[in-house]
């Protein structure tokens, strides 16, 4: 029985099915997730349709979408014709400042203004550029994400076993992630817990937004006061949960917006900060930087602490504020 036209080639000659042997690094993932990753550009609905129809076979047998792949499995992927796509420019390969690299991990210091992956109007991000720069890399995946406007430590796994291990550590609260944030306002407490439930939604144009809302996801951030000036403060944010935009929304909802935050900040102040005045220098980015992370190395089992220094533009802004009050 022939499939629908979206899996039949335009010519009379049928495309051949593809047979793939699963490697140790690919083992452990669900068949649906594997197909979504390797069949780029194929609609998700079609992936699940060929799974339900039994056209995807593992070791010559039918499987369901929950099947977890094992090393050595032989996967049959049926012929799939992608819709004609307009020509897109190739992703330019790029390397970023490396903080740590070994056979299991790559940790970079991501600059502000660079997305971690393509999507939502962005053609490509860090992960696509690194893959383009490292065509021989067998496996390279983001362990976590940073907002486009946030700079600092970004973890990538070079082995699936490392990715799985680090995801478990983060889920179980066994990692320690710290950020530096400069905020507007008169911050008082040396150490302050903020526990506000967060609800994530998308705007009509597809932009991700988060609000404090009863019934939202439980969220917890601890803020430590590092330095204080008359109108600003430098805080260390200690993440106890890892929700989307958590630090930004916790601070804005508490009355202390992050300087330069174009989504949740003080927009009039942000505009003023674009230019220097008699009391301070200019700030033309969001002042949020992932500066330290501690986790257990997935291979050695030993604790590893990594740090990324505050970017020069943030450092210059703090120096321009003069002597701190504390």
Q: Can you offer a commentary on this structure?
A:
- The chain is an alpha+beta fold and 326 residues long.
- The chain has 7 helices and 16 strands.
- The strands form 3 sheets. Strands 5, 6, 7, 8, 9, 10, 13, 14, 15 and 16 form a 10-stranded mixed β-sheet that branches.
- The chain is elongated.
List keywords for this structure.
about 325 residues, disordered N terminus, alpha+beta, four-stranded antiparallel β-sheet, single chain, ten-stranded mixed β-sheet, 16 strands
Number of strands: 16
Biggest sheet character: 10 strands, mixed
Strand residue percentage: 25-35%
Quaternary state, please?
single chain
The sequence of SSEs as H and E is EHHEEEEEHEEHEEEEEEHHEEH
Q: With helices defined by DSSP (H or I, 4 residues minimum), what is the helix count?
A: 7
Shape: elongated
Question: Whole-number average pLDDT?
Answer: 89
List the helices and strands and how they pair.
Layout: E1 18-21, H1 31-38, H2 44-52, E2 57-58, E3 61-62, E4 74-77, E5 97-101, E6 105-110, H3 126-133, E7 141-142, E8 151-157, H4 160-171, E9 176-184, E10 191-195, E11 198-202, E12 208-212, E13 220-228, E14 232-239, H5 246-253, H6 267-273, E15 288-296, E16 303-307, H7 312-320
Parallel strand pairs: 8-15
Antiparallel strand pairs: 1-4, 2-3, 2-4, 5-6, 6-8, 7-8, 9-14, 9-15, 10-13, 11-12, 13-14, 15-16
